[in-house]
Structures are given as structure tokens and as C-alpha cells.
Amino acid sequence: MVSTLTLAAVGSVPILVVFLLMVGPRWSAARAMGVGWVLATVLGLGIWSMEPTWWAAAAIYGGLQAFEIIHIVFGAILLMNYLEGSGAIATIRWHFAQISGDRRIQVLLIGLGFMTVIEGAAGFGTPGALAAPLLIGLGFPPLAAAVFGLFFNALQPPFGAAGTPVIGGTGAVIGDTLPEDVSQGVFLGDISGWTAVFTGITFVFWGLFGIFLLTYWFGNEDERTLSGAFAATLPVAPFALLLSVLAGATQLLVAWVFGPELPNIAAGFVVMGVGIALARRGILMPEEAWTFPDRESWTDTWRGGLGLDEIAGDIPEKRMPVSLAWTPYLLVALVLLVTRWPGLGFDEALMAYSIGISSILGTELGFAIEYLYLPGTMPFIPIAILTGLLHTMDTGEMARAWRESVSQTIPAAITLIVAVSLTQVMIQSATNPVGRIGMMDAMSIVLASSAGVALPAVAPWIGALGSFVTGSNTSSNILFSVLQHDAAAEVGISRTIVVALQNVGGGIGNMVSVLNIVAICGVVGLTGREGDMLRKTLVPTVIVTVFVGLLGLLFAFVLAPGVF
User: Fold this and answer.
1) What is the CB-side half-sphere exposure of residue 301 using CA atoms within 13 A?
2) Residue ranges per structural domain of the chain
3) From 484's CA, which of 26, 344, 437, 552 has a CA 20 to 30 Å away?
4) CA-CA distance, 64 to 369, in Å (whole number)?
5) What was the pLDDT predicted at 469?
6) Per-residue pLDDT, 464
7) Alpha helices in 140-183 (DSSP H)
8) What does DSSP assign to residue 236?
9) What is the pTM (predicted TM-score) of this model?
10) Nearest to 103 by CA among 233, 251, 202, 278
11) Residue 552 pLDDT > 60, yes or no?
């Protein structure tokens, strides 16, 4: 009889190899996941003696589930490319430059507002890729622009683009592990709500923490001390706290009422609306505007080795009325709100249409997709097309948006298909003729016995590890949601809270993801300086992961011990 510990050690090999290949030789996620998939297949057919038909059905089932996520990704990217091509993004960037010259105010509006909207509408690394060049254009050192392009994109990814990490990540793998009397839809709704509890509480200090780090790392010589940074942060504290509380409270309220699709878009618009109104009226504004030291004093680390002429950055021009530039985002929020509002009936009407396969290769595994209810179908793709008409794009610009969206989606699609298929092979290995517990089951039992009652404190670290390896909150949830769920069941604590902590940790891990750091460094001309970035983002990553883990312990054992 093979021990559970041995099965867990063997079953962890595919995930461990993926991690080592991505961190060591820095293989692409698709390539590393492919190796992991092969290893999972060998182990499933060999050690677990899965029947070939069942193994094939599990692999196909995972690949089909990935198409739901791919559809959302494509729609989000398509909308973003329409906005780039029409000049809407350039106008939005120009708008921020007119609001305030105080760098602290600018980074709060962009980090808590603009980036939150972009995460909710596009996700998948888009917020940092758009915000970092914008910050450089406003006068930020390249290193600061890159660091805070990642820092402020830590609490939004758990909801991603229209709820993708919850719906397409956790939802793609969790269904078969839930008890029969627990609806997957209800469970995912609860995951959304509890995710917002942790992100909402953390948001309260996030803006203030960001300003402290901004002044501590990039202020003048006197400000690059704890007391100096505190003094430079204090004048903007009321504004930072107000926007942070608004972001967290809005995210929390919307997540509990409407689910995971809308929290980011709603929170971002509330923050920007209130923040811009206050800034223009001078309410809660510091008496003196804060900025960086003279550019001539910027260190090589701040510049990333670039010359001052290379980072001067021109402020983008206004290409259209600001209201028109924001209209597509407002329409996305409106359509999501109407189609997800409880009681209106639109959600049931859209979910009534589905296509699928009742039995894959003659097995009990079946797949169905509610194609009209997917955010890619409603609203991303229709509003992208409408954007072309509203912004009077010519056919060449619109065709370019479609071509670029397809080429950008293909790499993500390959990675997602392999990742979900890999995870399903590991999950479905539990069905075998030799009576061995599955790979995921074995790992969850060992994780539960090792972490014990400390599992809520450990869970966000596992989620962060998944994002560190894959660069994606969604992929992290695909890899580890079932593991976390089953481990919580073994320990006898709330599965909902632990899986929500996994989701939150997946967002936090984006700050230190090798893939994200490499990508954003490439955008701002810091290639080769990734180590400087990691040394900065590692600090808030550790602090916030510990904080969220402590919150998890508090809720799991004191404030909400009876949650499923």
C-alpha cells in the first residue's frame, strides 16, 4: 500500500517542475506547462493506472473548459485594442496630466482609479502596461513607474477582467469537488464576497502605504528615511485614506450583491469620480505639491541606465472629448450591471442558451458553455464594435484591432488550455481501478496535516506562489483552488474562506511574478533591471501576504467559523 505522503510527493512533481522551469531557466508558461502536462499524463497512466479513455476525457474536458476563459480574454483585449486605435487611451492619459501636478495625487488617481477600471475591463497585465508609460510621461522615474504599475495592481486581479479568476479560474476546476448539495454558482458567489472582504480591508491602508513607499524610495535625501517618508506622506493622508476606503467599500458591496464581474470597474469609477472632483476643487489637497528630486540627481538605478533624453516622455495629446473616451468603459459597466442585477431576469435569459457535449468519449464527464452569458460575448465584443462606430474608426484601424487581438490571445490561449487540461488530469486521477487517492487529493491531505489550523495563514502564500510562477491570478486558481478547498475540508475549517484567500494571494503574487516584472520592464525600457524591480516589490508582497493570512485566521476561527 503506497502511503499518502508518497503519493503527494509524486503527484506534486508536475507542479514543482513547472515552477522550477519558469523560475530557473525562465521558460515560458506555455512551454513549462506543457512539460507539466506530459509528466501528469505519465503519472496518471503509470502510477495511478488511469484508464486511457478516462485520461483522454479528462484532458479534453480541461481543454474545453479553457475556452470559456479564452473567450473572455479575447473580448477584453479586443476592446482595449479598439480604444488604443481610436485614440481614447491617449485622451485618458492626457486627462490625468491636467488634474494635479502633485505626484502623490497622480499616483493615487491612476493606481486606485484608472488601473482598477482597466483591470476590471481588460485584466491580464494590461493595467501595469498602460499605467507605467503614463506615469513616465507625467514625470516619474522609470523604476518608480514600473514598481507602482505592479504595486497598485495587487488587490484588483482577484476579480480580474469581469470576474475571470473566480468564474474561469476557480470555476473551471472546483465543480467536481463540491458536495452535491452545494451549488457551484452559489459557492463562486460566496468566494467573490469573501475575496472582497479581504481585499476591501486591505485597500484601507493600501493607498497610504503606496505613498509612503513612493516617498521613502524616490523622495529627496531627507525623505528617504522612515521619519522623512512619514512626514511626506502625512499631508496627503486624508485624500489617500478616503480614496482607499471608497475603493475597498465599493469592491466589497458590489462583490456581495452582484458577484465577481463588476467590483473592479465599479470601484475604479467611484475612486476616479470622487478623486478628480476633490482634486479640481482643492478639497483635501496638500498645501504644497510634492515631486521627485531634480532629474539630474536621479541614480542609474532609478533611470535603469537610460539617458534623461530617453525618458523625457511627451504628455499624450487629446484626441477626442474626455467623456467620449470613457464611454466604452461606462457601457461595459452598465451592461454588466443590468445583466447581473438580481431579479431582473436578464441573467436567466442569457444562461438559457448553451452548447456542449453530454458525454466526452462515452464517459460521465460532460461540458456545456453558456455562450451568451460569458463577458466576452456580452458585453466586450459588441461594445468593442460599437466603439469603432462611436469613435469613427476607419476599417483599417478596426481590422488592425482584430488582428492584434487574435495574435495577443493565441499565446495566452495555449497556456490556458494546457494549464486547465493539466489540472483536470491531476484531479481526475482520483478515478482509477487501483483505488488510489488522486494527485490533488493526496497533496491536499498532506498540506492540511502540515499546515493544520494555520492553513488560512498559509493559503495566500500558495496563491501568491501560483501567480509568481504563472504570472496569472486565473492560472494560480486553476492550479491550486481544488488543493486549497480539499485541504480546508481535511482540517475542518471554512472552505469558502480558504479558497477566497487563495484567490487574494493570487492577486498579491502578481507584484513579484517574473513574467509580469519582465513584461513591465520591457514596456518602460528597464530590460536587464528586473532585479531592481523585484527587490522593491518583494517588500509589500511579504507585508500584505502576512496581513491577509492573519485576517484569514481571524475570520476562520473567530468572526465567521461557521461559513461553509
Assistant:
1) 9
2) 4-173+182-292+314-559
3) 26
4) 9
5) 63
6) 87
7) 142-151, 164, 171-173
8) G
9) 0.75
10) 233
11) yes
